[in-house]
Structures are given as structure tokens and as C-alpha cells.
Amino acid sequence: MQLHIHGRDIALDKDGYLINLEDWDKEIANTIAAQENILLTPAHWEIIALLQEFYREFELSPAMRALVKYTEKKLGTEKGHSIYLLELFPPSPARIASKIAGLPRPTNCL
Questions:
Q1: What is the reported pLDDT for 109?
Q2: Alpha-carbon torsion 61, 79, 39, 28, what sign?
Q3: Which of 14, 17, 43, 109 could form a disulfide linkage to 95, CB 3.0–4.6 angstroms apart?
């Protein structure tokens, strides 16, 4: 699979995740989000940045439980719960947000 943006072909795996994390930029994120029927708001970007921080720290994409805990630790209890994340990235926040953030698919997400 490929994504074609401004004359660039971006390689994707069979599930639509970036193959080369270095290809990621905000325009790619917006394109992938649109494919998931999500219009990115500042709240989305906050979680995307948090996911990328998690990936730099642990070298993996978080599963849902880890994402909730990390969000709670970094952004507080108001945002660190599954319902908040589900409202932003339905139907699977860890999987969808990781895809938009340019990260690999979390290993234990269906």
C-alpha cells in the first residue's frame, strides 16, 4: 500500500501503518486521520505527541492499558481514561492513534 502526498509516495504496511517512521509529518497524520473519519483537533494532537513521546521512551507503541496509564501520568486524570481516548480515536484508541502518529501497530491490539 502507498499514500501519495505532494508528489511523494509513502509506503504503508497492509494495515495502513507507515513502514518508515521518518516519513511521518502532520500532513500525513491529517491524511491518515481523514481515512479514519477523524478531523484532528488540538486534543488529538496532544495525544499524538504523547504517543510519539512514549515511543521514543519505550521503543514500542502502547497497548490501550499502557496508553491510558501514560496519559494519566502526563496529562492528569481528566484525560487519562479510556472513555476520553475512545471519544478522540474510535473504535480502538491505541491502534488508531498510533497509526495517525506514524507509529507501528501496537502488538496486542486487534
A1: 55
A2: negative
A3: 109
